[in-house]
Amino acid sequence: MGEALHGIGVSSGVAAGPVYRVAAPPRLPERVAVPADRVDVEIERGAMALAAVVADLNRRAGAADRPAVVEILRAQAMMADDPVLRDSVTELIRAGADAAHAIDRAFAAHREAFAAAGGYLAERVADLDDLRDRAVAFYLGQPMPGIPAPGRPFVLAARDLAPADTAVLDPTTVLALVTEEGGPTAHTAIVARTLGIPAVVRCPGVLRVAEGTTVAVDGGAGTLWVDPSQADLDALMARDAERQERLSRSAGPGRTADGHPVALLANIGSASDLSGPAGDAAEGVGLFRTELLYLDRATPPAVDEEVATYSAVFAAAAGRRIVVRTLDAGADKPVPYLNHDVEPNPALGVRGIRLGWRQPDLLQAQLAAISTAASRTAAEVWVMAPMIATAAEAARFRDYCREAGLVKAGVMVEIPAAALRAESILSEVDFISIGTNDLSQYTFAADRQCGALADLLDPWQPALLELVAACAEAGKAAGKPVGVCGEAAADPALAVVLVGLGITSLSMAPRAIPAVREAVAAHALPDSQRLAAAVRGAADAIEARALARRHGAFHDPAR
Amino acid sequence: MPSRTVTVGSASGLHARPAALFVAAAGAQPVPVTIRTGDKKPVPARSMLSVLSLGAKFGTEVTIEAEGDGADAALDELATLLARDLDEDSEPAASGG
């Protein structure tokens, strides 16, 4: 098979197609003196560049179907279509600038005002930069930065993908994602798994592959083949079809090879996430995120609306266990009516349950609504709080739950302090669930949004697994369940390690369940325990993976 | 010059959705309209970037001004719009879309 590039597979599956890159933002060229008789032409070119950006955004808004995306794109179009902006570009060109520099400077004036205003406006600075880059790219005759639109299904290659890029990704045209940077918990991986398309991250060389070249991507093995022969492609696809077929037949509760149960649960945000065969595969819901009900609105939801929403989700859970996480707002998920102060460091600020302590009426109203909905359903409803740091907080949350009539109360472990004191936390509550994404961020002091720190955020980091082990041991001593509901649970090989550490349930995007079920079932508990012990002793994440490979955790029966 | 001073009624302030609705309405008027907060420099109401830069929040007092034929009618329409909670109003449209 042609040249092979290797990275970390973060979303399994095989896909092949022409590769196209997310175009890099243009560099401003050297200043050009515009001759007096060309000034009007230059003004026209500047206006055309802005108009092209507006037309492109409106075209994309017309093609998008999610209302939130349409609204974002239309608002951006209005910013690029601004008469004041157009006038200042014209004036700057009359004063001697070429259109590229005039556009840059016209945006810079607004950029400064936005940045100075702070809060919501400061966050829109990236939008202004994007609009400027698009206009300058058009003027220079370069492709518009952002997701390409080659007009046929393609494999998307990028240095890394930002949330803004992925908000408009269309899974019917994007066959696979391959990034040169990023990491297993970065945004790219999460989006790919949600969309159910193969993805490989940290794949050096992918940006050197010429655009339009056919590539094949194996998102499980983490391999990309450049220009494979038809025969190789056919063989690869046949092997993947076989794997898909085998996984689609896999069913039933999670079990190790020697019959120890490991609950395989779904992470969901709404009832629709549980629909279809993917949702049916779950033994229950390990994480129901309730943020959707609170975001994008001016006032808190009414009690009736809250009860109705929860009832619909509980009905979809159809008698299975469902773990509801109370509102996890703040940091990257601001809610206007929650009176967020401007925080220099929102991930370390008043977020999650800390907002609940500040506005207990809102937390109590939510728990009451969950309790009302729970009383009308056959589903087994558990409740947990995000961002718990101490046993005292866990006890306080449990008291709120009991007051509301909720029987099973637990907490998320995302803060290292909570993991280290898992035993005292478990003496207060009925269960814990480890959010590995935030636990990584706080353990390694590495911002989840920061692509350059992806190495530290790798869920195979032994220090992270050490904290998971501490929680699992505390759970075993207390005889209480300890689950994992972060991205780590969706990695089949790592799932085997987690089981070996003593984790009792794994919660993930529903599509990831069959592959995890297969991996867990391929190992007897003592094997998993030996593997877990070896991985805990590894020097770093790379060695941890290598050890797991040697132990056969990456074993794929189809190969 | 005819003017109106109103309190912004949108819960999220003159941002995002409310700003877009206001700017579109201002652009549709037969006369140019300006908007300002306090004694600051008035900016064109049909400029999305300028209106956003005001940073007007829920409860901020803003003054709109216009001159010429139809100025009063234009100001009345825009003042009514500013005073409404445009986040609330647009919700049914968003969920129906």
Briefly characterize the structure:
The complex is a heterodimer of chains A (559) and B (97). By secondary structure, chain A is of the alpha/beta class. Chain A has 22 helices and 16 strands.
General description of the model:
The complex is a heterodimer of chains A (559) and B (97). In chain A, 46% of the residues lie in helices and 14% in strands. With 559 residues, chain A is α/β, with parallel strands linked by helices. Chain A folds into three domains: 4-22 and 146-244, 3-Layer(bba) Sandwich (Glucose Oxidase, domain 1), CATH 3.50.30.10; 36-139, PtsI, HPr-binding domain (Enzyme I, Chain A, domain 2, Orthogonal Bundle), CATH 1.10.274.10; 250-550, Phosphoenolpyruvate-binding domains (TIM Barrel, Alpha-Beta Barrel). Chain A has an eight-stranded mixed beta sheet. In chain A, strands 9-10-11-12-13-14-15-16 form an eight-stranded parallel beta barrel, surrounded by five helices. Chain A is globular, with a radius of gyration of 25 Å. The two termini of chain A are 16 Å apart. With 97 residues, chain B is α+β, with helices and mostly antiparallel strands. Chain B has a single domain (3-89), classed as HPr-like (Histidine-containing Protein, Chain: A, 2-Layer Sandwich), CATH 3.30.1340.10. Chain B has helices at 16-27, 48-53, 71-83, 86-96, and strands spanning 3-7, 33-37, 43-44, 61-66. In chain B, strands 1-4-2-3 form a four-stranded antiparallel beta sheet, covered by helices on one side. In chain B, helix 1 runs antiparallel to helix 3 (71-83). Chain B is globular. The chains are: A alpha/beta (559), B alpha+beta (97). The A-B interface holds A 67-68, 70-71, 74-75, 78-79, 81-85, 110, 113-114, 117, 119-121, 124, 297-299, 336-337 and B 10-13, 15-17, 19-20, 23-24, 43-44, 46-50, 52-53, 55, 85, 87-88, 91, 94-95, 97.
